[in-house]
Amino acid sequence: MSSSLSCPVLIVGASLGGCTAALELAKLGVPALLVDKSSFPRRKACGEGLSARGVAALKSCGFDPRERSLESAELTGYRLVDGARETALHSSEPILGVKRSILDATLLELALAKPLISLRQGAVVRDVDREGSHFRVRIGSDVVRAQSLIVADGAASPTATRLGLLTPKVSSRRVGCSSAWRVVRGALEKRVLVVLTRRGEFYLTPTGASSVNISLLGDARFVAECGSVDALKAWLSQRRGLLGVELEVESPPLGAGPLNSQRRGSAIGSAFLVGDACETFDPIGGMGMAHAVETGLMAARAVRECLESGDIPAAARWYDRAQQRAAREMRGFTRLTSWMLGTGAGRAVMPCAVASGVATRISHAAHSPGRASGWRLLLGAVGAAS
C-alpha cells in the first residue's frame, strides 16, 4: 500500500555527508528526512583517517568525535617507507584514525536524537522528478514531495543520474581496497605507516589502541593480487620487524574505485550534491571524509537559504563557489601527494621536500581549518589545473 508525504528537505544517504547536513539543518531549525538503502552500522571501503579540518567541521554542527568516547587514535603524522629509505612527516594538526562504521553509526544516532530529523532505513530511492521548484521522489512504493534535496549517496550516485547529472569521466586508473585488523601482539605507533612499492602503496592507519585499517592504492591488478586476506597476511608476516606488531584480520577487504573522478557538478535547482556524489579524491590524508563533512555543512546552509529567501539560483551559486573553494585545496593536495608517492620523480624529490619543510607546510595548509595562506593558494592553483 503506497502513501504520500511532504517534507522541506529530503537527504538521500545517511553516511558522513548526509548526517552532517542533517545535524546542521536541525541546528538551523529545518526539518529533514534521511533515507538510506542500508542498515547501520555498516562497513565502507575507506582509509578511516579524518583530517583536522574534517574534525572542525563536525564540531561546528555540534559533534566532537574526541568527546564522544569513540574508539579512535590521534595520529601525529606519517612514516614513509620506500625500500631501505624511511622518511618521517610530522603533522602540525593531529589526524583522527577512526572506524568508519562507528563514526557513521554514532553520527546517525546523534542526528536521530534531534526531534526535527527522521529516518527511512532500508529504503531505496527508485525515481526522482522535478516538479517546478520542488521534487517528487519515489521511495519504494511511497512518494515524497520535498522542497529541497541533499544528495549524499556516494560516487555512483543514482540520484544524481536521475536528476540528469551524468556520471563523471574517470581521470585515474587508481583503485583501492581497505580491511580492518586487530593487534594480537605489540603496540601501534601513533602515525600512519605508508609503504611504497613500484605498483602502489600500502597504508596502515591506527583506528584505536588495538585496531588498524590497511588500505591499498594502485592499479586494479596490484589491488587484486595484493589486497586479499591471504596476500596481506603474507605481506604482514614478511614485514613483522618493520611493523612491530602482529595482526589478525577482523573484516575482509572491501574495494572502491576508480578514484579521482572528475567533478560531476554541485547543484541542480535546489538539489545539492555532497561528498563523493559531487567529486571523489584519492583517500589520502583524510581528504575524502573531510570533503563529505564540509560539503554537508555547506549544503544545509544553502538549503536554508532556499527555504527562507526562495532565491534558489543565488543559493546554488553560493554553494558552487563554497564547494569549489574547499575542493580545490583538497584536490591540489591529493594530486601533489599522489604524484610524490606514486611516481619515480615524485619519490626522488620527496626526501628533499620533507627535509626543507615544504611537505609539512603543504600538509598543514591542506589539513588545517583557517584562513587562506600562500600555501593554500598554491594548493588551489594545483587543484584548479586541468
Report on the architecture of this protein.
The protein is an alpha/beta fold and 386 residues long. It has 12 helices and 16 strands. The chain has helices at residues 16-27, 52-60, 100-112, 158-162, 220-226, 229-238, 240-243, 287-309, 312-342, 344-355, 358-367, 374-384; strands at 4-12, 32-36, 49-50, 72-82, 85-98, 117-121, 125-131, 134-139, 142-151, 175-186, 192-196, 200-206, 211-218, 245-256, 267-268, 271-273. The strands form 2 sheets. Strands 1, 2, 6, 7, 8, 9, 15 and 16 form an 8-stranded mixed β-sheet that branches. Helix 1 runs parallel beside helix 3 (100-112), helix 1 (16-27) runs parallel beside helix 8 and helix 2 packs parallel to helix 8. The protein is globular. The termini are far apart.
The DSSP helix count reads 12
- State the share of residues found in helices, binned by percent: 25-40%
Structural class: alpha/beta
Radius of gyration (CA) equals 21 Å
Order of helices and strands: EHEEHEEHEEEEHEEEEHHHEEEHHHHH
What's the total count of β strands? 16
Question: Low-confidence parts lasting 5 or more residues at pLDDT below 50?
Answer: none
Strand content: 25-35%
Distance between the termini: 50 Å
Largest sheet: 8 strands, mixed
